[in-house]
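Predict the assembly for these two chains.
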Amino acid sequence: MSKAKPGSEGSLLKPGEYLKNVKPQFPGGYKLPKHKHREEFVTLRESCYRGREIRIETTYRITIDKKPFTVHTGVSNDGKVHCHAFPNYSFSSAMEMIKHIVDNQYVSPPKNELKDDSMREPGGKS
Amino acid sequence: MAAIRRNIMFDIDARDKFLRGMVMLAEESTEFMAQDVLDYIQSSGVQLPMSGIDQSLTTYDLFVFWHIYAMNVMYSTGNAAHGGPVFLPWHRMYLIRLEQNLQRVLNDRNFGLPYWDWAEDGELSRFDQIRTDLWSADYIGEPRGRVRSGLIGRMRVKLLGGTIDNAPVLFSISPRRLERRSGLSSRSRSLPNQDDVAWCLNQQEYDRPPWSANSISHRNILEGWIDGPQLHNLVHVWIGGDMGPGTSPNDPVFFLNHCNVDRIWESWMAENGRTYRPSNNEGTPGHRLDDLMVSILADPMTPAQVLDPSDWYTYDNLVVI
């Protein structure tokens, strides 16, 4: 186990300077997912019960107003559903989760002044 | 000399410095605009769409950004900060960096982050849980609605996690006051109590397969996924409002909650040793003992490097069951 204590005296750079000058590092071998806007999410639940191996694969494909819901969604062994938009919440069902999402959606999101390549439509229209 | 982290309800000096330091970080300008943050996200390859107004950001806003950025680095179980073994060491690193910045702006190298022992309040009636001094102008302001009083009433939310067209988005919004809905959620009428803390402290293993929200382990019960939301997660849900989305560090109570979570982990290690799993040849990448943890405002550390925090801080009191 490493004994090093990097940064015990604090960073030499202020946070804004660090963010500007240092690229993020990821764990060795980690590759960022290339997918964008996934429209289905698969959760594999596994357990061993009385010597029997149990595997339950659950796929969520959710739409709201016929548009795919693309926020990462999963289910725990106890059947509770969770999603990335509310990272500390557990819901008794996917339906209850989506109702919570709808309740907390911006009615009128702020006007977009930012240039975001990931949100542009093919052809470059923002 | 290591800082001493104290109970915010029993130490007025720690409280006053914490509140003053948070406002100083929230008012410390940086060179970063919202567009710069979006450019950073895109150049690093992380999938986090962003939308909204272009505006200048402060040091505190960048800490908010760090949290939601790490959340969007997805691992095969959980992400770079939640839903797996790295949850506790990642937040320990995050709090150490915030504490160092508070020491810097306060010009006090001995300042220690205070903690909120929410399990003590969880022993009160639900009616009384929002009527403690914590939720007053002298501490962190109103428990419900917009936070207008005290020093925290000066803070503004600029970055906010949300959804648009059913997809996740980081919004850059016109600055507004913090919002809370403490005790109003039908999912969490009451804070965790001391029996809940004992439940996680009685676990003999830090973590275990499947290294996820399904593990029966100290980490996962403390994170709050078993029969959830419980413990750490329940505190987020109980407060609600800006403590809900991935930008939850907008509310300074985030740090009081996580300092207490860290104290509970430290209490567990006092009884069970400074052990951590997964080691380097088990579990999933990103959560292992010597894996670099995602850090964008200071040098990254590994879980191994934060297992013993005594170079940085100690606690005035650990939890004894």
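The radius of gyration of chain B is 18 Å. Chain B has one domain: 3-29+82-155+180-315.
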